[in-house]
Amino acid sequence: TQLLEQSPQFLSIQEGENLTVYCNSSSVFSSLQWYRQEPGEGPVLLVTVVTGGEVKKLKRLTFQFGDARKDSSLHITAAQPGDTGLYLCAGPHGSSNTGKLIFGQGTTLQVKP
Amino acid sequence: DTGVSQDPRHKITKRGQNVTFRCDPISEHNRLYWYRQTLGQGPEFLTYFQNEAQLEKSRLLSDRFSAERPKGSFSTLEIQRTEQGDSAMYLCASSLALGGLEAFFGQGTRLTVV
After folding, report:
1. DSSP per-residue codes, B72-107
2. Of A19, A103, A104, B105, which alpha carbon lies 20 to 30 A from A9's?
3. What pLDDT is attached to residue B99?
4. Residues of chain B with C-beta less than 8 angstroms from the C-beta of A101
């Protein structure tokens, strides 16, 4: 059974601090995606990583896909209150190309001004 | 059309009532997915369509749940005889079948069963 485990589940930090969120699995994924979700809204896609060892940057956010494609991390530099939200990692379920995703349980980030 | 649209955004219903939600996907997307998300958890897959064909249903989708996508455009998700455990956010997403790594989500329908 494919599972994605995220850590930490909750993170409360002050504005300006750096943080890293982890997404781990015992299964190999062909790709992983990171979403951000605000309360009462749907998830919004931030990035897709497809190559082992890949690093992608989106302004102050840096995403890394593990060499073995079993894990990923999201690093935020100088966090701002606008970064507050639920961060979800997701990967394709199984080997068939259905587009069905499995999600981690999410990391709730609160950035205090 | 700039994104996936869901209606209603919020629904409060009494236990035992039937409810129906609608999803309008991005117009050129031929795949449509329904997910359910409870507080503090990631979304869980319920079912998906490619065009008008429903190709997979999760075991989470009990007999009280039914989904349709007539003509391969919008989709509806109906829950009959709602139970308090059905309270959740119901999310719709769409993608392209070819090269469709990325799914785009609607804003969700928040269902509260009282």
Report:
1. GS-EEEEESS--GGG-EEEEEEEE-SSS----EE--
2. B105
3. 61
4. 33, 43, 45, 103
CA distance A28 to A33: 14
Instruction: Give A11's contacts in chain B (Cβ within 8 Å).
Output: none
> Which residues pair with residue B79 across a beta bridge?
B19, B65
Query: What's chain B's average pLDDT?
Result: 92
pLDDT digit string, tens, across residues A50-59: 999 999 999 9
Residues paired with residue B92 on neighbouring β-strands, in sequence order: B34
Query: Which residue in the block uniquely carries the two structure tokens 């999310």?
Result: B91
Residues forming a β-bridge with A35 = A45, A88
Shortest Cα distance, chain B CAs vs residue A11, angstroms: 13
Taking the C-alpha atoms of residue A71 and residue A90, their distance in angstroms, rounded to an integer, is 11
Q: Are residues A24 and A4 in contact, defined by beta-carbon separation less than 8 angstroms? A: yes
Amino acid at residue number A51: T
